[in-house]
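Batch manifest, entry 17 of 40.
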Amino acid sequence: MIKNIAVFFGMCFLAVSVYAQDIDIKNTESDTNEYHPKIDGYFKKSNVLLPISEVVGINLGLCAFNNYVSKEPFAKISFSSIANNFKTGFVWDNDFFVTNQFAHPYHGSLYFNSARSNGYTFWESVPFTFGGSLMWETMMETDPPQTNDLINTTLGGVMLGEISHRLSSLVLDESTYGFDRVTREILATMIDIPRGFNRLLRGDVNRHTKRNVNEVFPISSRFSLGYANMDRKKKYDINKDNALAELVFIYKKDLNSESFKPFEIFRLKLGIDARTGEEPSSWVDIYGILYGKNLARIKDKALILGVFQDFDFFNNSIYKLGAQSAGLGLIVNVPLNKHINFSANVHNNFIALAALNSIYRGGENRDYDFLMGDKILTEAILDMGPVNLQLEYKLYLMKTINGIDGNHTMGFLNPKLFLKVYKGLGAGAEFIYYHRHSVYKKIEVNNLDLTEHRFYLSYWF
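Output type: structure tokens
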């Protein structure tokens, strides 16, 4: 439930920020739909002690809240509990799926942005994320340090941190005044809390520049409201007939560029669906480039070889999947004429850690196993003016590393059709085929396949 609330508010904040920017708070120098570069003279790296202090402060503050406000037993730390944690060493935990797969990555993003907003680069900010997580695991809980939390907090925190940093840059513009400026500062802080804190600390919230000094790459967005239906399966007691909301961001540097730095290209999808009296289902689906090189730049055609990082989070009554992965991939972009463009994205990732609901594992908290494996993503997009066709397939091949021994194959086939009707307004339809094949050691084979249909109205901005 905590995660569903967080996702819902995250969607609201991001939707409001970009919506507001599109409607009435344009950048003075150039709109955020166009690129404008970062002006380095306005961004200075602070002494390393400042981000370290902020990371420590985040941990101490959260621990104090857990101890004195929410009265959590695990927050009753002492020198004895810290010594015992070092003696015990790392273990696998039994926390809720939401806590491990979403809350910890979000926590890690605060560490990351404590450094990022103090002038440190993407790669320079990574050690702060790992260090903050290591401190929390070994010192801030009476429970033994947990392997899965260290991995999820670090990998997920880096990804969510950089994306929230870039999204906040879309909102900030120090060349603006008055209500416009105040609105930007508030919205940017909602998206990236450490950045808002550091801007206030340095006095940047009051600084005025002749033009926008933040680096901004073009972004296209789509917000959809509609209906999701799943074919009834009596065997699994499944009947989905829900309202849905989804927000999609596509952020990308010019594909004809020579090279690409971390997350100069990313796609972010946030979604939620539910019906009255039912706990919402939710999803956070992200991929972004860590480094890329353009192998062919011929008349606006591009072939980009890169290293990608993915963040997968799907939480519903049918399946729960959370995965952190990275690997090699290709982006292809081929304009066929002035009105038709074809693009594709294919990458193959090593799954460093995943969590998947277990058919046979029950418990008050943990109803999932930890796994490692491989993820293959294929995505093709045909853009024909007002008509947009997409086909996406994700395949997961995973093996249990903690939990009930087993091998798991999961796949999502997702064709989509979008139609723009009038000034950004349009409609869309999707078909999703989900299949799962789990073979548990010394237990029967489990198969599951389902189909879902989605229909919605959309606004592109």
